[in-house]
Fold:
Amino acid sequence: MRAGGNRRRIYVSRYDIAVLPGDGIGPEITEEAVRVLNAATATVGVDLQYERLESGAGRWRKTGVVMTDAEYASCEKADAILMGALGYLDALRPDGTEVQGEVGFRLRFGLDLYAGIRPVHSFQGAPSPLVNGAGIDYVVVRENVEGLFASRDGGTNVRDEVATDTMVVTRVGTEKIVRAAFELALKRASGRPGQQPHVTCIDKANVLSSYAFFRKIFDETARDYPQVTTDHVYVDAMTYYQVRQPQSFDVVVAENFIGDIISDLSAGTVGGLGLAPSGDIGDHHAMFQSAHGSAPDIAGQNVANPIAEILSGAMMLRWLGERHEDRDALKAAEFIDTAVAETLASGDARTRDLGGSVGTRQAGQAIASRVEKLGR
Structure:
């Protein structure tokens, strides 16, 4: 963070943001996220400087390289990373996996972005498929660099007859993600008088020893947080409860693969992946992105929902604000969250996937305009 300014406004703080717009609808939703970020930061005097990088499946199609070492170095040097959506279904490595993992996984594992944070929040004006879809408000905390995904590039395929992958659960990695979940529960409760902080461990400990080990470490770590209540839910039961009683959760924590699945299901209960922001956060670096794919079938049609990416931008500002004790960045994040809720409720940002007819650019413009009004 550095001081900066221009002729019109003295900026209190400045952050360098690496932006990876990506593929398909990625550039469209990223453009709207940047529009809203600029509107929010201009009201409080925070200066965001963007470096746009070409990493993605589109680059691979042209050059055979998904992400250059120089681009990775730019991400490592940046104050934060904002990613759009990556990948094309036909852009595959020789083993059949998609090439965009060479960006997301490289950054997650290389920068130790061990905590995948996925807020789940129902909005007025965003239809839920659930009869009881109002009042959903919890966070999925996903271990990001271990679990079943740690086998990526390390699995075995013998004679194209037998393929194996290995679950990796370590004590240090599990303690880190569980502590992140407990700290998040305490933070949520501190802003909500009367709320009891609660963390739920999601696993399959009744069948697999790796998950029993995950649960054991969860229980041991919980002793350091006597003010937080806890419980355990098997992952198959979790998918049931996410549909039947999602309001019962506060913070849930899970191994990488399980966390990946339940976080997408959670998005479906509040109106879809177009409303699902996410942050991949470590001790020194963080990356923020919409939780959905690149949807190339609707790219360039001005119909994609940009709200997940816009909310991811708000998460980025909040992380920067907390990391640097920057109240202005925190205020800008609050403006964005409020503007999204208000424009969804009014219908001004209700895109096709939410039953409306607002286009991508129009949704971004409506949210940016509401942010500016809040700032005034």
